[in-house]
Amino acid sequence: MVSLREKAEELGITLSDRQLAQFETYYELLHEKNKVMNLTAITERDDVILKHFVDSLALVKADCGFSSQRILDVGTGAGFPGIPLKIAFPDLKVVLLDSLNKRVKFLEEVIEALGLGNIEAIHGRAEDYARQKDYREQFDLVVSRAVANLSTLSEYCLPYVKVSGMFLPYKSGKIEEELSQGKHAVKLLGGKMEEVVSFVLPGTDMDRTILKIKKQKATPKRYPRKAGLPSKEPIS
Fold this sequence. Notes:
SAM-dependent_MTases_sf
């Protein structure tokens, strides 16, 4: 049986009994809700611990502090990586964004059941919220485990990052080709690739890569383009 406490310690994170209990409640809610709606294809306890909880916490390898920053999780799905990060680092101010209202309702249930403060789940498309002044260029960190290519993901996420903040797209496997294709979009949207952090997820043989993209200047007002275009016609 996988020990979340031990795997977290391998990442340099010490979890209290209360935090471990919150993760346990989170797992139970996820497992139960998944019976009636499709939240994740990963349901076995050990797999959820490794491939969702530990995988989310592994973002600490980006070495961005995770103290009291304001953080946005774009395309959060069932709450990854935003909720595990919030449990492990309670001082974070977290916004979870997802385009499916049913998932957002589930996230609200999790937030209430875990007694988490300074966290909200919002329903909508990334392209739309990025045009609102309460969200545009308001975040210290923007994270995403979404599967979109880097050009598309950058157009979704970089408009939310404040100047001098960081965008941390989190990728599976090797990404050299995608990185090469996405560099122009990153620069056009005001970002600069600072570092590529590659590692094997603790307890697995799975390759992971975190891109550290620093926001150097404001994103041009025309981005993001209207809903649907970033995925249909990625910036090339």
